[in-house]
Amino acid sequence: MGDPWCGPRTARGAAQHRLEFTPKLDGGAAARTPARARALLIVSVVVNLGVLGYFKYGNFLSANLTAALHALGLAYHPAHTDIVLPIGISFYTFHTLSYTLDVYLGRTRPADSFLDFALYVTFFPALVAGPLLRASQFLPQCAAPRRTTGPGLAWGLTLMVLGLFEKMGLADSVLAPFADELFAGSGQGAVVDAWTGTLAFAGQVFCDFAGYSSCAVGAALCLGFTLPNNFRFPYAAVGFSEFWTRWHISLSTWLRDYLYIPLGGNRRGPTRTNINLVLTMLLGGLWHGASWTFVAWGALHGGYLIGERQLKRWLPGGGWRTRRAARLMAGAATFALVCIAWVLFRAASLSQAFAIAGSLVGLGGGDGSKFSALRRAIVGTTVFAIVAAHWALRDRSLEALAERTPWPVRAAALGAMVAGLFVMQGQDRAFIYFQF
Amino acid sequence: MPSSTFSSEPWIPAGRWGATWLLALVLAAVVVWRLELVTRAGGQRPSVVDDPVLWSLARIQVDADPGIVAFVGTSRMALAYSAPEFARAAPELRGLQLSITDHQAFGVLADLAADDAFRGVVVFDLLEPDVIDPEFFHQSDPYVRRGHALWRSPGSLVNRYAASQLQSRLAVLAVGGRRIITALVGKRQWPAPQWVAIDRQRSSHADYRLATPAALRAKADRRLPYYAPTTTPDAWLGILEREVEPLVRRIQARGGDVVVLRMPISGRLAARVDEAYPRSRYWDVFAARTAARAIHAGDVPALANLLCPDEMHLDQRDQAAFTRAVVEALRARGVLRGRGRAAP
C-alpha cells in the first residue's frame, strides 16, 4: 500500500494528545481553570481537524477555491502538492477527537498509561477501517491484562471467517464485477443494467464493509478485546432513521453524540432539527472522502431523514403502521432509496451519478441489456438472499443465532465458508473503506 | 451520549466450539478435495495466478552475473520460453522469465537498462504493431514499481508464497468459485478446462488440445482488427530509435546485450502483419540500424517451422524446440560468448 506517513503520523498523533493536552485538561494544575481547559480543548480540536483537513481535504479545497476564483475572473494558480493520504486517518483522528472531548466533558477518565492511550488510537484491527472506538469503550479494557478463552478464540475466528467470506466470497467474487462494469462507463444505459449494477454495489458495499468489521471484531476477540458492533442487518431497516441505527453504527453514533446533539438535535423546533440533520449528514458524507459525490450522498440522506419525519407527521396514525405488510413495503422503499443513494457514493463524478440515476428511471436511452439473463439472475439472487437474511435476523443477533443453532449445523456452515474461501481465492481487491 | 449498548464483556455464544471447528475443517477439506477430483477429471491443471509480486520475485534475481539471460516480452514470450529446456541447452547460464501477459514489455526493458547491476542478455520479444500506441510503453509500469517496492509489504510476500504453494497444487483454484457457479447455474455443467497454465517460475504453458478449433478461431478473429496498418515506416522506425535504442546502448555500455527477437506467428495474423508491415520497409531497416542484435524468426529455420495454433502463441509441446532454437541462434551470433559459469 506504500503509505510512508501512516505509522509515524499515527504515533505522533497519539503522543501529541497524551503528552501535550490530556494532562493539562484533566489533572494538570495549569488546566484546572475552565477557561484554560476550554482553550486547550479548542487547540486540540483545531490541530486534529487541521491535520485531517490538510491531508484529506487540502487538494479538494484548493481545487474548488481555484475553480471559484476562476469563475469570478481571478487567475489563481496554487502550487501543486502531492499529498499522500495516510491510511485510516479519518478513523484515528475521530478516536483522538472523541477522547479529548469526552475527557473535557467528564464522560471518561483520562488514560492512566500512555501505552494504553497509544493502543486505543492505533489498535490494529480497527485502525484502518473502524469500527470507530470510544475511549470509554476501550480504555477500561486495558485496566487488566486481556486474555482470550477457548470459546472466545473460536468465536473470534468464526467472525473472521464470516467476514472474509462476505468480502471474498460475495463482495469480490460475485458482486464487484457487475458494479465495476456499470460504474466504468458513462452511466447511460438500459434500466435493467442500471439496477443490476446498482444492486450489485449495494450488496458489495455491505459485504465489503460489514465483512471488514466482522474481521476486526473477531481479531480483537482473539486478542481478548471487545469492539462495538458496526452493523445490525441494515437492509431490513424500516425508514432512514432506523437505517442509521443499523449501518456503520460507530460512525452514526459518533456524529450523533459529537455533532447532531451539540448542534441542538431535535430540541429547537422542526426547522432547526431539519437543518441539524442535513448538516450532520453532509459532514458524514464529507467524512468519507473529499469529493462532491460524497457531499451529495450525505445531503441526499439528510433529505431522506427530513422526508421521513414529514411523512410520519402527515400519515395517519394507527395500528396499520406496525402491520407486517406495511413494514415490508416501507422496508422495500427504504432499501430502494438507499440503493439510489449508493450511486452517488460509488460514482466517479456527479455527472456519472446523474446519468446512472437517469438510467435507473428509464432515461438512459439504452436498448438491450449488456448483462445476460444469467448474470442478472446471479446478482438478483445474491442481493435478495442478503436482504432476506437481514429481514430474518433483524430483531436478533448473530450471537443468538449461533447459540440456537445445533453445533453440527454450525460446523457445516463454517466448513462451507472455509471451503468457499479456498475456492474463491485469487481476487485482489482492497476493502472499500480503506480509502477513507 | 455514547452508545449505551456496548459491553466490554463480549457475548460468546455457548456451544461445543472445539467440535464445531474440528468438524468444520474436516468438512472443508472433504469439499475442497472433492472439488479438486472433479476439476482434475475435467482436464484442468493447477495454475498459479501471475501478478506483480510474483513478477517481482523473478525480477529480484537479477544481479551482476553476466550469465543471466532475461526473456522479456508479452504472452508470446511467456508461452514460448521453457525454463527446464533452457537449463538443459545452456547449463552455464541463468534463464529468467520476465515476460508479462497482456502487457507490452518496454517498461521492463527500461527497468533493466536503468539497473546498473544488470550485465546479462535481454531477449526482447517484438512484433511490428507493438510500438504504435504510446500507452504500450507504460503498460508494465505497475509491475516494475512493485518490483522496486517489494519489501515494503512483507505481508504480500507471505500471501504470495502461500498462494503460489496452493495454486501450484490445486487445480480447483485455477477455475475459481465464480466460474464454477456461473457454469453450474448457466450451463449445468462443470466449467471447461483452461488451456493455459502458469507455473511458480512464471512460465506459461498452453495446451491447445484442450481448446476447440472454433474457440481458437474466435480468439484469432477478435485479435485481427488490432493489427491493421496505422503508421508509416519512418514513424515506426522513429519510435524505436527514440524509445528503444537508448536502452539498448545503455545495457551494452555495461557489457550486457539486447537481442530483439521477432517472434514466430502464423496464419491470417502472419499474413496481416506481413501485409501491413512489409519486412523490407520495416524489420529489415530496423535490423540494419539498431545497435541490438535483431533476429527474425523467419530467418531461423527451427523457429520458422513452429506453428501457433491460435496464430499468435506457441503450444506447450513446442516450448522446448523454441527455447533450443533461441539458444542456438544466440550462440551462433556470439551473444553468449564469455558468459556464464563455464566462461573463461
What percentage of the residues of chain B does DSSP assign to strands (E)? 5-15%
Global geometry of chain A: globular
For the CA atoms, what is the radius of gyration of chain A?
23 Å
Question: Helix content range of the residues of chain A, please?
Answer: 55-70%
The tally of beta strands of chain B, per DSSP, is 7
Throw out a few tags for this protein.
heterodimer; A: 436 residues; mainly alpha; 68% helix; B: 344 residues; alpha/beta; Rossmann fold; 5-stranded parallel sheet; two-stranded antiparallel ribbon; 45% helix; 9% strand
Write the layout of secondary structure elements.
The complex is a heterodimer of chains A (436) and B (344).
Chain A: H1 6-26, H2 34-71, H3 89-104, H4 114-122, H5 124-127, H6 135-138, H7 150-184, H8 191-222, H9 240-243, H10 249-260, H11 269-288, H12 292-314, H13 324-346, H14 350-360, H15 373-393, H16 398-404, H17 407-424
Helix pairs in contact in A: 1-2, 1-3, 1-4, 2-3, 7-8, 7-15, 7-17, 8-13, 8-14, 8-15, 10-11, 11-12, 12-13, 13-14
Chain B: H1 17-41, H2 52-59, E1 68-72, H3 75-78, H4 83-89, E2 94-97, H5 106-114, E3 121-126, H6 141-148, H7 154-167, H8 172-175, H9 177-186, E4 196-198, E5 204-206, H10 213-223, H11 233-243, H12 245-253, E6 257-262, H13 267-276, H14 283-289, E7 293-296, H15 301-304, H16 319-332
Parallel strand pairs in B: 1-2, 1-3, 3-6, 6-7
Antiparallel strand pairs in B: 4-5
Protein architecture, described:
The complex is a heterodimer of chains A (436) and B (344). Chain A is mainly α and 436 residues long. Chain A is built from 17 helices and no strands. In chain A, helix 12 (292-314) packs antiparallel against helix 13. Chain B contains 16 helices and 7 strands. Chain B has helices at 17-41, 52-59, 75-78, 83-89, 106-114, 141-148, 154-167, 172-175, 177-186, 213-223, 233-243, 245-253, 267-276, 283-289, 301-304, 319-332, and strands spanning 68-72, 94-97, 121-126, 196-198, 204-206, 257-262, 293-296. Chain B folds into 2 domains: 18-46 and 169-187, no CATH class; 52-163 and 195-332, Rossmann fold. The mean pLDDT of chain B is 90. Chain B is α/β, with parallel strands linked by helices. Helix content of chain B is 45%, strand content 9%. At the A-B interface, helix 7, helix 10, helix 15, helix 16 and helix 17 of A face helix 1, helix 7 and helix 9 of B.
